[in-house]
Amino acid sequence: MDELPVRPGEAPASPTPRPLPAAPHRAASSPPGAPHSLRISRSGERAVDLTWEPPSPLVGGPANGYLIEKRMTEARSVDFGKWIEVGASFETHIILTDQRPGVPLQFRVVAINTTGASPPSHIVTITL
Hints:
By secondary structure, the chain is an all-beta fold. Helices cover 0% and strands 38% of the residues. The chain has strands spanning 36-42, 48-53, 65-72, 83-89, 93-96, 104-113, 116-117, 124-127. It starts with 35 loop residues before the first strand and ends with a strand.
């Protein structure tokens, strides 16, 4: 093999570059466990602040993200009793704005990964 000329102050050219080894990761073999310790607080006149703890690493696969669901509890609501996805987060915290004041609202969180979704967290209720 011919050597490439090297000028003073330069490092010799390396042979064919090799790919870097992949970072170790834990592949998801099953859906994650349920998020826990869901807490809710008012964050302004029409906003709520939700925080929760990630699923236990001993239950299911690791969580890649979270879906936040809301249910209207007022019988006059078009969406009465239906769980509707209202947000997503990679973190264990989210602020949801433009919430309807004067109506009890219920929220829950579902952890997700490449193999599926967890059971939902416990439900929290707030009236703005």
